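Hi there,

I know you've been waiting on this one. I reran it after we fixed the sequence typo, so this is the corrected version. Both the input and the resulting structure follow.
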Amino acid sequence: VHAGLWRQPPFPDASRIAMLFLHRNPRGEPPQQERWSFGRFELLRKAQRSFEVVASYSPASLSISGDGDAELVQGERVSAAYFQLLRVGAARGRLFTEAEDDPAAPTPVVVLGHGLWTRRWAADPSIIGRTIRLNGVPLTVIGILPPEFAGLSGRAQLWIPRTMSPQITYPEYLTTNQNFISAVGRLRPGVDLPTARSELAVLGASINRALPSDPDFPDEKVTATAATLNEARANQAVRRSLFVLLAGVTVLHLLACANVANLLLGRALARRRESAVRLALGSSNPRLFGHIFREGVVIALLGGLVGIALAAWLSSLIVAPANVWAPRNFYGSLASFDSPSFDLAELFFGIGLTLVTALLVATPAATSVFRLNLAAGVKAGSRGIAEGAMSLRRPSLRGIIVGIEAAFAMMLVVSAALLIDSFERMRRASIGVEPAHILTFWVIPSEAQVPPAAAPAFVSRLLDELRKVPGVVSASVDGGAPLAGTASSVLYIEGRPMPAPGQAPPVLRHYIAPEHFATLGIPILRGRAFTDADVAGSRRVAVISETAARRFWPDEDPLGKRVWFGGGSSFDSPDSSAEIVGIVGDVVYAPLDLRPNFSSFYTPYAQFTYAARAVFLRTAGDPWSVVPEVRKAVAIVNPDLALQDVQPLTDIVKDSWGRNRFEAILFSACGIAALMLAASGIFAVLAYLVADRTREFGIRIALGATPRHVLWQVLREGMTFPLVGLIIGVGLSLVTTRLLQSSLYEISPQEPRLFVGTALLLVLVSAAACLIPGWRATRADPVQALSAE
């Protein structure tokens, strides 16, 4: 949690660095945070006064070629002030200058990350001054950055001047009105963040008046604001997940503390005669308190020191599975910087926690000396026997602690049950495709290389070469993979009134090949799929999902209806509308816990597409077996093009459950530990109680009590406080499980079935913990009891 939320990112004086963003409130839409266009950023950079340095950056996937095979790496397009702001210098060579930041005179230079330089060029110092190719464009290497530096995106391996973006990535990078450039600033000395936010609120409005984000609504309410890197690097979903994790571990720790405290308290009560004798011989209560308190503190300190040592040793092994907390912050342009490590902060926290734990576990036992009855403690009489009973009418500290343990255990086990049930529902849910034997990867040629007008021809050549690969059964493309997200747009329907601004319904958009539905195993429910005849110049056609048909034409037949979409595609006006010719099954294109949109609209890529595409290959055997030949096929189309995110579709499906599986496993472990601790706590209390009351049970048996009656008495007394704790735990769980809402799929946080099942399980565990002490009570020897009496 410290690594993910509180530890400062790895930049000098990082607390003074802030992300800057626009805050828009589009008509009819919820407020949203946005990045900047190049023009808006320049207005901001020149007008602001709160930051000593303001820089821009935007991540990009770039293909290196020319020295060996083409390789896709992550890079950043940055302004010259970027490295100054982050206070990083070149390990070799130099960094960008202000002259290389001039849009009127772009300079073809590049700075390499230390890891890429070491891996691809074997740390050859002569790389400085040499030329490499990025997306087919030659650039001169001018510098190498220090090891471990990966930029604000946390993934960058090389950096290019932002002014080179039109040639390498996107031709309209410097001229488009779209907001996709991230801005970051370092506060001036003496200026705090609230002051900067006040200035930005005014600046954002004036910038939007000068250069509106939506030219159709120049009076739209737009401001600007800032957030520290720690605030911006984790969104609310990640924060909530981490705090739920922390809460679960805290409850487990308190449960362990209650258990140890009860053991020490039972030990102190079992030695009350010894304590009474000490007092009778002249010892004082404070001195006796200190004696017992030190014993508990020593145990807690030893345990804490071992725990700290284990944490320091194991922290390097803690690696969250892929996609557990995917970077959904700020469009994924800012790294989460959340790799766990054991540093001074963790050491001091561990020491502080150890001291608090020592107080929690040692105090109850030590304070028992102030409640000691000296006369009853010295003599072994019936009055001393009666004090060992557990009853709600005379609640003892031991009983209260047992109740607390039961309540904590109920909370953890219910949480674990909810997460496990949710994960199983998610795992069994149909996603609408047949993922087995499908290889997926991305090809991302820049729009500078392949503009939209040339994209259909590029995709056709790519698919033609891929279909020739031995073992490939069929091939298709799309703008995203199932469960991994895809493009969206807004829908307009011919013959219906135009919706108000901001009110057009959002739908998912797909530009696909004719074989797409067969490749992914998507069933065609009505109408037809696309054919090779659905090309540019022919009648525009669309296929829709079953949910889209029900949602937009609940009482009509959608076949034959015409639609068009918002955005920049060739289907963006009534004159370019498409006729619906088919209906297919629903496909899940976003993680299930994000309440995905199932309204999909498919059109043929030959009528419009972008060149950056996700490719799907259905293979005859193992998808990995065709990868070498697939790389060769892609190289035939474009030798400068590298493959990205090569993996079977089954891996994408598994990764989409990553966070849910991780949380289910983690809370399951906590739940099992909670059950064991609660059971051992109940057992320990009853074991001490039975041992303390052996004479009493012997007398009862001598007076005619049967072993069954004695066992029932022990069970009744032993179950009293656990049952009360369970009732309290149910109430607490009804409140606390609401925190899990965002992690649950198709199950209520107050699912009655799981609450009842968990309560029954804990009752059985508690009863089982009472059986052995109860059996021991039935073995009490009445002869010895009467002799002692």
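Quick highlight: The mean pLDDT is 87.

Best,
R. S.
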